[in-house]
Amino acid sequence: MKCPYCHNDDTQVIDTRVSEEGNVMRRRRRCAHCDKRFTTYERIELIMPVIVKKNGSRSEYESSKLRASLMLALRKRPVSAEAVDNAVQSIEEKLLASGEREIMSVQLGELVMRELKRLDKIAYIRFASVYKSFEDISEFAEAIQEVNVENRPAGKNKK
């Protein structure tokens, strides 16, 4: 690590501490040449996959866009901010676990729909109506029926 003051390559680590969250390493260093001290931080660099849109264009993954989409679907619904944070984290973990460098926007949309279905059925229908480009009321009815069938207790027959 180069000294930020004299740019000498010879620096020593004096002290190392891990952050409370455990995801950042703080190191106090001393330059052997000018004897000045400075702090460096070491953190894990997670590289999210690039999102490939339907038209073939590519864009960097942005957590804020994902959160905004979830918040729009969940607008005025009784879902806590913590639940939204957990949903975002779950989706991001799945993206990272895929190991892919690129992911189709359709796959990301499916992950979002799964999380919304788990969080709030109304928000799921809202998101699905835009995501799947519902053309008429019958498509809404099918989506609602799908949610109702999944919520039906085991052993209950259709009427």
From TrEMBL:
One of its GO terms (biological process) is negative regulation of DNA-templated transcription. A zinc finger (unnamed) spans 3-34. Residues 49-139 form the ATP-cone domain. The keyword Repeat does not apply. GO terms for molecular function: ATP binding; DNA binding; zinc ion binding. InterPro entries: ATP-cone_dom, NrdR-like_N, RNR_NrdR-like. Transmembrane segments: none annotated. PROSITE patterns: ATP_CONE. Binds 1 zinc ion. The keyword Transcription regulation applies. Keywords: ATP-binding, DNA-binding, Metal-binding, Nucleotide-binding, Repressor, Transcription, Transcription regulation, Zinc, Zinc-finger. It holds the Pfam family ATP-cone. Its cofactor is Zn(2+). Belongs to the NrdR family. NCBIfam families: transcriptional regulator NrdR. Negatively regulates transcription of bacterial ribonucleotide reductase nrd genes and operons by binding to NrdR-boxes. This is Transcriptional repressor NrdR. The lineage of its organism: Bacteria, Pseudomonadati, Pseudomonadota, Betaproteobacteria, Burkholderiales.
